[in-house]
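User: quick one - fold this with beta-D-glucopyranose bound?
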Amino acid sequence: MFYRTIRLLPALVASLVVTAAGAQTSGEAAINAKVANTLKKLTLEEKVAMIHANSGFTSPGVSRLGIRELVMSDGPHGVRREQGRYWGDATPSADSGTYLPVGVCLAATWNPQLGYDFGSVLGSEAAYRGKDVILGPGINIIRSPLNGRNFEYQSEDPYLVSRLVVGYIKGVQDQGVSACVKHYAANSIETRRNFVNVLMSERALREIYLPGFKAAVQEGGVNTLMGAYNKFRGQYCTHNDYLINQVLKKEWGFKGLVMSDWGAVHNTVEALYYGCDLEMGTDLSMLPKPDYTKFFLGDTVVALVKSGRVAETVIDEKVRRILYVMYKTNVVDGQRKKGAYNTKAHQQTAEKIAEEGIVLLKNDNKTLPLTNAVKSVAVIGYNADRKQSMGGGSSQVRAFYEITPLQGLKNVAGNQLNITYSKGYNIYRGAQADAALIQEAAEAARKADVAIVVGGWTHGYDYNVWADNAYDAEDVDKPDMKMPFGQDELIKAVLEANPKTVVVLMGGGAIDVSQWAAGTPAIVQAWYPGTEGGTALAKILLGQVNPSGKLPMTFPKKLEDGPAEKLGMYAKDSINMYYTDDIYVGYRYFDTKQVEPQFAFGHGLSYTSFAFGNLTVTKSGKGATVSFTVKNTGKVAGAEVAQLYVRQEVSALPRPYKELKGFQKIALQPGEEKKVTIALKEDAFSYYDDNKNAWVLEPGVFDIMVGSSSRTTQLAGKINL
Ligand code: BGC
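Assistant: Sure. Structure tokens for the protein plus beta-D-glucopyranose:
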């Protein structure tokens, strides 16, 4: 009986697959039929109305046919504004939502399941609020620590991005609404984002900057995509023939709609022909009564078609894509999921992501977790008592509530700890070390068993997203990687007062810790960890949660150590920005050029220890199967992210010293051992040859490196392919 069941399984699975695929096709066919039918009924004016916004966050339907507007909301970290048609709308009473940890924190979990859970919360809250499209995930490659929007993005590594983005999108879209992957493509800085013309090799584009988007389309099935503000090879990304028409729509088969970033359309004819389906944006100068018919894809288009200069089929193609998304997500007809809002489950998901995303960077002498012997803690630093949800630009979230690090410690520690708080520094751009604040903080530290400094970057003033103290924010980049507001002086003084000092860094990525890192026993990277971030952080500091986050980007020692800075982050001569760092982004550069980072890509410590062993690498088709064991050799339960890197020993084109091609997060009880198997397909060994304009698998010997970070690979094997 058992045998029969097993034997029948493959056939059963195959029939299920066929049914599922068949159902999908007939579903698609039904949608296409509805779209075609509706399209036939529309006048030219109605069609043109549909291809541009009619408010800050909606585009028109056709009321005559009972087709309502398409309603959007910024993600990527929460659903904004209940009825928000504009950014500055008055606040309706229930205008708050679950504030999820930021994108880099999600990436630092290295847990694709949490990507799905993250998306599910967003999708569910969007559905509840009657939103059709969540403007996220943001997945631009983190190329330089200076980019103001790194916090919204995920990683310097295209493979890690690809694995997380798929779950995120499915999570959103399984709730019946659309995700919008953004900003396509090569939007790796904010300053002058509306002007810069990014130039890079085809190889860098294919190997580094596109894989996340490709996975979003082909594996995630994303319904909508947003073009970036910048130019790419001379054309604005939002209407870029190569990126949108050739690659996205033709090569990858994207069926959904391409919308512009807000105000990113610059030219009617280019938008018409180079792939933009929907022009979004709010011209603030037009408020309170903006005239959307004056948009590039407004009345001008009607005139162009009527005079015979543009074929109506060009408009039809855009409307077809918009209607396709509308029918697919039951905007026009059908049953929508109801969704839910600010539920306990959503808050728990936010906390879980923070718990798994916070990274323990350094922990000498078992400084953390704080033991029962610690009776008093001096909490220091502006970020300890600061809410972050309303900072950063378009990703701001009006949080239902937000537990700060200070509040979290108080809640979790209860009577166990005597907690004092001092601000330590001021947060306005250009603020220097404040002697009085430093002295107060140092005194508090001296009197306490342990000092915890919570500092790092800031998002900007609450409710003023483009404030002059914004470092992690839209439209700005960081001037350098140095700690702002005199925090170096503060930390050094606190360390002198109490060597048992823990530094918690908040922010979207690397910051220069070189002045004090060596003398600081424990350092924690907390990102902006969302609504329950303070709870998650406190649980980690107190040992109720064992940290398992890993850095999704390299932390250089000094800004100038990094490739983008060395190799031309800002073009001085013109608007042209040459990505001469090419494929050597992040650890690909640091490892290949043997530059020692402060903290390596993939690095993150635990309160337990893990042993890797029993590596086998076997050939399988044009790829390989890699298996190994991971054992928890310590005393507490924990999770390790086993990372698999591949290197080709000799190749016609130069290749990075190692590249991430697989990973798995494994939860283990003390003493427990698990076997991990990772299948590497042909693409894990291939590179993009821009002489041939194709991915090639060049035969040769490949090193397989497996371990706990990009710089700590405990296991090594080889395979000849
Ligand atoms: C941002 C987008 C955002 C849009 C709407 C733009 O400025 O670049 O990411 O979705 O505004 O708020």
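One thing worth noting: The chain is about 30% helix and 20% strand.
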